[in-house]
Amino acid sequence: MNRLDFIFQRRSIRKFTDAAVEDEVLEQLLRAAMAAPSAMNTKPWRFIVVRDPGRLERLRGVMPFAKMKAAAAISVCADLRGPRNLVTGKFWQQDCSAATQNLLLAATALGLGAVWCGVAPMASLQKAVSGILELPADVVPLNLVMLGYPAEEKPARTQYDPELVYLDSYGTPWKTENS
Questions:
Q1: pLDDT digits (tens, 9 = 90+) for 118-145
Q2: Fewest Cβ atoms closer than 10 Å to its Cβ: which of 27, 84, 146, 169?
Q3: CA 36, 31, 73 angle in degrees (round to 5)?
Q4: Structural domain count, the chain
Q5: Is the pLDDT of residue 94 over 80?
Q6: What residues make up the domain containing 78?
Q7: What is the pLDDT of residues 30-78, one digit of tens each?
Q8: Kind of pairing, strands 45-50 and 139-148?
Q9: CA-closest candidate to residue 52, choices 71, 68, 78, 29
């Protein structure tokens, strides 16, 4: 097995079994998410784990691309409250995205399926999700990751395209022995 196979196996899974996701597995996902880098180590992320069927249904009702019936969801949010450096406070989307990618990769490695459903920067979605999750005014939802045990299988893949890579400056083709 190639050491990077878990990256290529990560796919957006939209069909799930009814099996619950165990607390220990959810904690592993959260530990992986919080291992992500953040600007000046500010760690603005906050995670809302949603398992309540009623709340999951309400989220499905407002999220146009999260209609799938998943056993759980995790909303990755940013806490923008308190004294923050004027520079690092502007990187919350990158910081929370890095945490989300770690979470998605960990889900794949642990045999779960997951799909990233964007919330930010859509103001209407942010307002709706914030209301359902009862977020304070300065805690902003970046996304909603729907997850559970997969009821579908997708082949591993890479979307590598050497035509999208340049050497030293834009427009100078990247060439390797394999391209």
A1: 999 999 999 999 999 999 999 999 999 9
A2: 169
A3: 95
A4: 1
A5: yes
A6: 5-164
A7: 999 999 999 988 899 999 999 999 999 999 999 999 999 999 999 999 9
A8: unpaired
A9: 71
Written as one letter, the residue type at 167 is L
Going 48 to 35 to 70 to 121, the CA torsion angle's sign is positive
Q: What is the rounded CA–CA span in Å between residue 44 and residue 58? A: 26
Tokens of 146: 């729907």
In a domain? residue 67: yes
Does this model's pTM top 0.85? yes
Say if strands 139-148 and 72-79 run parallel, antiparallel, or are unpaired. Answer: antiparallel
Task: Output phi, psi for 103, to 5 deg.
Answer: -60, -45
Q: Do the Cβ atoms of 75 and 141 come closer than 8 Å?
A: yes
The two three-digit tokens of residue 51, written as one number = 């398992």
Using CB atoms within 10 A of its CB, is residue 34 exposed (0-12), middle (13-18) or buried (19+)?
middle
Q: Which tokens is 15 given?
A: 């069909």
For residue 160 the two structure tokens come to: 């590598």
Whether residue 35 is contained in a domain is answered as yes
Structure tokens at 60: 């499905």
List the beta bridge partners of residue 47: 76
* Tokens, residue 69: 């019936």
